[in-house]
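Record 1 of the preview.
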Amino acid sequence: MDKFWSYLGGVIGGYTLVQAPLGSFGLGGLEPVLDIVGALSMIVFGAALVVKGVFTLVGK
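->
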């Protein structure tokens, strides 16, 4: 159960990176990089949640 919260935190962190408005801080040039990092984070941690859920259902 402790890994569930870590994976969920990774998904939420990735979403936050994608939605972060950096233009108001003068860091607008970093937005494409953070969008890619955030999207990859959501994909990886989301897949880990799905795999962990399937293993829990199967009973391994």
